Amino acid sequence: MKCAVITVGLGFGDEGKGATVDYLARELGADLVVRYCGGSQAGHNVELPDGRRHTFSQFGAGTLAPNRLRTYLGPAMVIDPPAMLREARHLAELGVPDPLQLVTVHPRCLVTTPWLRLLNHARELARGDAKHGSCGQGIGETRSYWLRYGEDAIFAADLHASETLRHKLELQRQRILLELQPLLAASPTDALHNLGADVWEATAEDVVEEVASAFREVAVAAEVPPHTTAILEGAQGVLLDEYRGFHPHTTWSTVTPHHAWELIDRMGSEAVTVLGITRAYTTRHGDGPFPTFSADLTTRYPDPGNPRNRWQGGLRCGWLDLPLVRYAVAVTGRLDGLVVNHLDQAGGVGFCVSDSYRNTRLEPSPVPDLAWQSRLTEQMWQAEPILTPATPAGVLRALASIVPVVITGSGPTHRDRTCSGLSFRTRRA
Q1: 3-class SS of residue 225
Q2: Would you call 54 a catalytic residue per the annotation?
Q3: 249 and 376 inside one domain
Q4: What is the pLDDT of residue 310?
Q5: Domain of 193, in residue numbers
């Protein structure tokens, strides 16, 4: 029987998806990891018991498991070939032979470029204090370009067709240089003028060499590789979803399981389980409302896997926000179980959870509605959480009242996780 596990983050990202996928790959003897959304901005941390660690970006987070899993990047992914090559080099240093041989990419994956990253940086700088909290890697601009220009966008299939790629890159360069002009004119400082100096003069030929040479060893195919057990790895978290997150502090990507279910239909999976992933407390990397934010908790729980960066600042921590968990579950759809990570950091003097807000209630929109999401964002900025003390056992009880808890994590490695049993839905292949 072909089995599949869909994983989805229920927060603003950083819920422990990498460690969870690594554990599931080992526990279930999986032979494939499918990335179904997001792009190279993912930072899924996996640490091994011997201290080796890797931050997965475009490879599946089960790659370090002993069963040599393949990675399939589905058609909703946005890829960055040079970043993939850098990631492959680090995996090789960790003992993974020929990492690029393990990857298959759907031909319709969008490809980001240095010019799209430059436009991303310029637009975020021009927003000033109203910045969105972008990751700065051009993912949103890549999807925006595709939505505006359709087949002129660069797809993975183009990386094996140099003349087509060269033509599309030059067209993109000229369009983006024009689009940058009003941002430069409106900028009150030299920040935009000094941004990406090496990119301004780059030619299409320069970029062809950069992106295509990194991709020569990678298979491009629409078919999902043969497998018996697949882990479908989500990216970011549903609170950042393009239509269900708190607009405008969101990603340009559908990060609910929507694209995972599209792939499940093609994969012929006969048994499926859907797992939502959360920490025992709440985190947020980037701008946007954060009702339970705690400066004390942020200081207490530094996360080396999520370093401060120019575009998002540092990782912020707050108390477990049950209204946000309930909202995330509601917009995700039916879950078969919950994964709770970082339980070892729950409890202690002053540890709290929030079961409700004094002054607002988050109601999901019945349809994708950005105006509705903007109103929810305003409510979130004003929300006053009611905090109560909690122990690790209390955290688990509170979360289990929403969705049954099936996996718990109390440390960084797969040995720090326990599973109480997964419940699979059977379906016709």
Answers
A1: coil
A2: no
A3: yes
A4: 67
A5: 110-213
